[in-house]
Write a structure and sequence with these properties.
Blueprint (H helix, E strand, L loop, with lengths): L1 E6 L5 H17 L4 E6 L4 H5 L5 E4 L10 H8 L3 E2 L4 H8 L1 H10 L7 E5 L13 E5 L9 E3 L5 H11 L2 E6 L4 E8 L2 E2 L3 E4 L7 H6 L4 E3 L6 H17 L5 E8 L5 E7 L9 H9 L3 H10 L1
Parallel strand pairs: 1-2, 1-3, 3-4
Antiparallel strand pairs: 5-8, 6-7, 6-8, 9-10, 9-11, 9-13, 11-12, 13-14
Helix pairs in contact: 1-10
Length: 292
């Protein structure tokens, strides 16, 4: 019996419910015994009363992607999909991720970390900047700062979600993503938005965002991106499946953005698109993650 853990109490609750529903339908299609469990943040005791062998984690954001639910499952000796608690925690924290990637000389835009109620550290790289909370996904709370007058409101927004924010150099260019499944990179997907950047609206609500696979890069460029993604994934200790996001600047030089250890599994989601480009159906993808 498989428990599909979905919902949660993060800002990505709605996306998680959609992901969980898609996974549930897929497992049912394949005659795999399963049930949905809407985790509300304080009802885990109900979960432990259920009889199940493995948890399929479809929780996005805090609580589900940061090692918290993984630790609870480990305490109860219950198997689950995806990365372990320590890797999940590191990957969720954008500052920790950047620090680890920096140790391996992976390509990153420069950044500083700002803490609520403290003096903003000196920023020695030019505008524009991206300001983002360090523990949010789905582009929640991100701002583009094009002059100094916008920094305070951007930090105020980021601090609504977290006491710590990342200020990093904004790289102008195209966004690409590499999905990883059981030790192999899937075809690269290019993301094209009508205007602005790939924010929450573009990710989940817009029907004009384009996802291109083939991604438009040469074979050598695509392979290079996949190699970087695999290294970025492996050095974080991530396992089974995930997604690594990039910006390629105007010279096509890649910069790592972030890593997702429980990516979306909705109709707008990137991992199912990459799997499809690889020749895997949604049902085959779900099964590969479950058995990974």
């Amino acid at each position: 019996m498989i428990a599909i853990l979905m919902g949660g109490n993060s800002t990505e609750r709605d996306v998680s419910l959609n992901s969980g529903e898609s996974i549930y339908k897929s497992l049912e299609n394949q005659n795999i015994d399963c049930f949905k469990f809407d985790w509300l943040g304080d009802n885990l005791e109900e979960l432990w009363t259920q009889n199940f062998d493995k948890a399929f984690i479809a929780l996005h954001g805090r609580g589900g992607e940061d090692g918290a639910i993984q630790r609870q499952l480990e305490k109860h000796n219950i198997a689950y999909t995806g990365s372990n608690a320590n890797a999940s925690e590191q990957c969720m924290n954008k500052a920790k991720t950047k620090n680890i990637w920096k140790q391996y000389d992976l390509a990153l835009s420069p950044w500083v970390v700002a803490n609520a109620g403290q003096v903003i550290p000196e920023i020695d790289f030019p505008l524009p900047w991206a300001v983002k909370p360090i523990l949010e996904g789905s582009s929640v709370g991100i701002s583009k700062v094009e002059d100094m007058s916008q920094l305070k409101p951007a930090l105020k927004l980021a601090f609504k979600y977290d006491n710590t924010a990342l200020i990093e150099k904004w790289i102008e260019g195209n966004e690409y993503t590499v999905s990883i499944l059981n030790g192999k990179p899937l075809p690269v997907v290019q993301i094209k938005v009508d205007q602005g950047f790939y924010d929450y609206q573009s990710k989940y609500l817009s029907d004009t965002t384009q996802y291109l696979s083939p991604c438009g890069l040469s074979n050598a460029e695509e392979k290079h991106l996949q190699e970087i993604a695999m290294q970025a994934f492996d050095v974080m200790g991530a396992k089974t499946w995930g997604r690594v996001d990039f910006i390629l600047d105007k010279k096509n030089a890649p910069y790592l953005l972030e890593i997702n250890t429980v990516p979306g599994m909705t109709s707008h989601s990137l991992v199912p698109m990459a799997a499809k480009a690889f020749g895997l159906s949604f049902d085959e993808l779900v099964l590969a993650i479950l058995n990974g």
